[in-house]
Design brief:
By secondary structure, the protein is mainly α. The protein is 81% helix and 0% strand.
């Protein structure tokens, strides 16, 4: 029995350690999750006229490599089991993301990139704490998770809009290209969501899911704090 208990602790410790390393590696590769590669940046700046397919591709690429989006989305669906509930929350996030992405660029609303990305990192922390039941224990009430998902979706959209404004897309074909980019973002989100649901579906069938759920959200929270710290440091020294 003692040996089994030790092995169980070791397995759980390895799970947390591997998860944390994965998040740290993700942020180390591209700590600014809204960043655009040099090649894509040059393409955006040099493009002129309506180019729907390329911008759909760029939008999808952004989403599937956007670690902040994926971590927040992972937190949102972590305890959602019914497809109806998943659809509602993902739609709220997509609506918020789309509104501020489109309006931010079209209305030339620019926000400091470090500060908006720090808020996005905080959204990951917020959702992880929500999944851990922290607000009930600390404050005795449960914040409206749907409203929170929509609000944080707005901030996620502003983060991308700020980056796009920095690259000064040509006004020729701007509106259709921007809508195409947003369509690509949502397609990328659906792809990422599908992969997450497959993984979560398998994990939930294992007896270890509920044992490791709390630890997984601790790791998620740690990743959010790392992202917040990185962005605030960048703001202070920039």
């Amino acid at each position: 029995m003692i040996q089994f208990f030790k092995r169980s602790i070791n397995r759980e410790s390895c799970f947390v350690f591997i998860g944390l390393l994965t998040i740290l590696f993700a942020y180390a590769v591209d700590a600014s999750a809204h960043g655009v590669t040099a090649g894509d940046k040059g393409y955006i700046q040099e493009s002129s006229g309506t180019m729907l397919i390329p911008f759909i591709y760029l939008g999808a690429k952004h989403m599937v490599t956007g670690y902040d989006h994926l971590l927040f989305l992972f937190g949102v669906i972590f305890f959602l089991y019914r497809l109806k509930d998943i659809s509602i929350y993902v739609t709220l996030f997509a609506v918020g993301h789309s509104v501020t992405l489109l309006s931010g660029v079209l209305m030339n609303i620019s926000v400091n990139a470090y500060l908006i990305d720090a808020i996005i990192g905080f959204s990951i922390v917020y959702k992880a704490l929500d999944n851990m039941g922290a607000y009930q224990r600390w404050f005795g009430f449960q914040p409206n998770t749907k409203v929170a998902t929509l609000i944080f979706g707005l901030f996620h959209g502003f983060g991308l809009a700020t980056k796009i404004l920095d690259y000064k897309i040509s006004p020729d074909g701007l509106i259709p290209n921007l809508f195409a980019f947003n369509v690509g973002v949502e397609l990328g989100q659906l792809i990422a969501l599908g992969i997450m649901l497959i993984i979560m579906g398998y994990w939930r069938r294992l007896g270890s899911f509920m044992r490791h759920a709390y630890k997984a959200n601790v790791v998620l929270m740690a990743g959010g704090f790392i992202f917040v710290g990185y962005q605030l440091t960048g703001f202070l020294i920039s």
